[in-house]
Design brief:
Blueprint lengths: L1 H4 L5 H20 L2 H26 L8 H18 L3 H25 L5 H19 L10 E2 L17 H24 L1 H11 L1 H6 L4 H27 L1 E2 L1 H4 L2 H14 L6 H22 L7 H16 L4 H8 L8
Antiparallel strand pairs: 1-2
Helix pairs in contact: 3-7, 3-10, 3-12, 3-13, 4-5, 4-6, 4-10, 5-10, 7-8, 7-10, 8-10, 12-13, 12-14, 13-14
């Protein structure tokens, strides 16, 4: 099946993909804890980038409030663990179910009243803001003061509760990123994937061909929300603390979408390349600003904004299509 997925990929591209997989699998064996933590951010950014890419890159729907699903799943799974002792491997199911249900409500409102384009993006921001304000006042999950997961020495090594070290979280994040990549590759070549692309390119023509536009868009929205919810569960148990003002903030939504935008919206490898660019860049910026004493709020966002403007001006389609052309790789992501 994997061979069929990459039937249109050149031998050089397959070799590079295998080399990347080998390097990523062996990375924790040779790198220190700090670099492993950076690679965890890379894998998580690649995973969430693929999830968001399904919505815009495949189905043509712009969401600027995707932190909604990240935060909902994080709080639900963390609350179930702290208050009821339900581990994340079970808690992920109700967490994802709530994300999908909220996405279904958002999609129903948007499609019922024909909210499209930039207005759909504003609707997603509004939902995320409502969630942020709501969790600010929910004492059950700590309110604005934050919600903290217990970190006890006796819990270390309990992988079934996601209580382990960086190496465990790294391989889990790598598994998520690889699974999302393969899933998107399958969807891209499926009938559903072709319907998404038809709706993205020309909704009226797609409807004339018998494609139910809202149904196709809803399926992309629900899948994207569910995948992002899984990342929220990972985020909760990796960071061990949650604050509504951070996890639901629009800046977090922007962080989720930067990797596919910089790497290449609508491509399979774009979110991965964008994640490898953004996560290390963020760490370098933190080190530089700390070294020179420039800790002004928004410095990182300003640099990211300038970097994004440069990418859009220089390579509007993203870095991956240009890189694939330079390396003479045949991309199957478009």
């Amino acid at each position: 099946m994997i061979a069929e997925l990459f039937a249109g990929v050149s031998t050089r591209a397959r070799v590079l993909l295998v080399l990347l997989a080998v390097v990523m699998l062996a990375a924790p064996l040779v790198l220190d804890r700090y670099l492993v933590s950076v690679l965890i951010l890379v894998c998580l950014a690649a995973y969430t980038g693929q999830a968001w890419n399904i919505l815009l890159g495949f189905a043509g729907l712009l969401s600027l409030g995707h932190a909604l699903y990240l935060g909902l799943a994080a709080y639900i799974s963390a609350g179930l663990y702290v208050h009821f002792g339900i581990g994340p491997w079970l808690g992920v199911f109700p967490a994802v179910a709530v994300c999908v249900a909220v996405a279904a409500l958002l999609g129903w409102l948007a499609f019922r009243f024909r909210i499209e384009g930039v207005y759909f993006a504003l609707l997603t921001i509004a939902f995320a803001e409502v969630a942020r304000i709501g969790f600010d006042h929910i004492g059950f999950t700590g309110g604005a003061g934050g919600f903290f997961l217990p970190v006890r020495s006796e819990d270390q090594g309990q992988w079934w509760n996601l209580r382990s070290g960086p190496t465990f979280f790294y391989y889990l994040a790598l598994l998520l990123a690889a699974g999302a990549f393969l899933l998107c590759a399958v969807l891209r070549r499926s009938r559903l994937g072709h319907r998404w692309l038809a709706v993205r390119e020309d909704p009226e023509a797609a409807q004339a061909l018998g494609i139910h536009i809202n149904r196709a868009r809803m399926s992309a929205l629900l899948l994207s929300a569910g995948m992002t919810g899984i990342a929220g569960v990972f985020q909760a148990f990796y960071a061990n603390n949650l604050f509504p003002s951070q996890i639901f903030d629009i800046s977090r939504s922007i962080d989720l979408i930067l990797a596919p935008i910089i790497g290449g919206v609508g491509t399979l490898f774009g979110p991965i390349l964008g994640a490898f660019v953004l996560a290390p860049l963020g760490e370098v910026l933190i080190s530089i600003t700390g070294a020179i004493g420039l800790n002004a709020p928004g410095t990182k966002a300003l640099v990211f904004g300038l970097f994004l403007m440069a990418i859009i001006a220089g390579v509007p389609t993203g870095l991956w299509p240009r890189l694939a052309s330079l390396l003479r790789l045949r991309s199957v992501g478009r």
